[in-house]
Amino acid sequence: MVRAVVCRTLGAPETLRLEEFPSRVLKPGEVRVAIRAAGLNFPDVLMTAGEYQLKPELPFTPGVEAAGDVTEVGAEARGVSVGDKVIVKMRYGAFTDEAVVTRSQLTPMPSTFDYAEAATYLAGHGTAYHALIDRGRVERGEVLLVHGAGGGVGLAAVEIGKMLGATVIATASSDEKLAIAKSRGADHLVRYDREPFRDAVKRITDGRGADVVFDPVGGQVFEDSMRCMAWGARLLVIGFTGGIGSAKTNLLLIKGASVLGVRAGEAVRKNPELGEIRLRALLQWAEEGKLRPNISHRLPLEDCAKAMRLLLDRKAIGRVALVMD
């Protein structure tokens, strides 16, 4: 029997249930993967609450990324073999101990990662890559302000921004989160409750401001970011865990600034070539030891609701993984 987390009613994480189903026979072109770990992302929480842009038909299993071992290869599935260690990319359905997918949903695991690291890599680091490289076009020597730097995508942005040669200012809500950001390359650390970050950015940059702002928080953080931007700044909208912010058009005009929406998955669906370039780079950097997810919590599949609560309560530092062994 296959275990899976099932959402039958939209709402809080506690409404999710672990259920069992029989394995199904593979269709041509399909591959069976024994899932060893799955990564949690904030969109998983939003999706189960019915607040995400993608709204699967009920019932459904949440989860967009996992990692495991190929256990069966169907007819017409090429380029994959039983025993391969793979990352599994899904729009939903990853919180299970067995997945049936197509070959196009599989990516070889970096040899430097364990299953949990592989299952928490591509979504967060892929978003950071798309934001900073495809959308923000960060250049060496620029100042990058990363909000929510203790979160999964925030830490990924710190890592990639530093690798691109930017001066990285990391903001977070605790010393513990900022310490991890520093270990991943942040040059300057700002705690929200100790100094208004807009003042800190101006102090650090001698009044010039940030060239690129990476914002997964939104709300007041987004609005205050417009008051510490440099000329020609790019404000990257990653998400809105802190609410929906309003863009002050006069500030954007005065600074010659741009607000850019970031949807890494949709960008690949619109332009698959972008995804191929991104994937090659991320896998290469992982193999070279330049990038690695920080996983603060590893919980069993049956504790999915508790894992989601870690995200909602801002207790995770980096990533949270569900592990099947």
Describe this structure in words.
The protein has 325 residues and is α/β, with parallel strands linked by helices. It folds into two domains: 2-120 and 293-323, Medium-chain alcohol dehydrogenases, catalytic domain (Quinone Oxidoreductase, Chain A, domain 1); 123-265, NAD(P)-binding Rossmann-like Domain (Rossmann fold, 3-Layer(aba) Sandwich), CATH 3.40.50. 31% of the residues lie in helices and 26% in strands. It has helices at residues 42-49, 115-119, 122-135, 152-163, 175-183, 197-204, 219-225, 249-255, 264-270, 272-287, 304-312; strands spanning 2-6, 17-21, 30-39, 65-73, 85-89, 98-102, 106-108, 143-146, 167-172, 188-191, 210-215, 229-237, 258-261, 295-300, 319-323. Strands 3, 4, 5, 6, 7, 14 and 15 form a seven-stranded mixed β-sheet that branches. α3 (122-135) packs across α4, α3 (122-135) packs across α10 (272-287) and α9 (264-270) packs across α10 (272-287). It is globular. The relative contact order is 0.15. The mean pLDDT is 96.
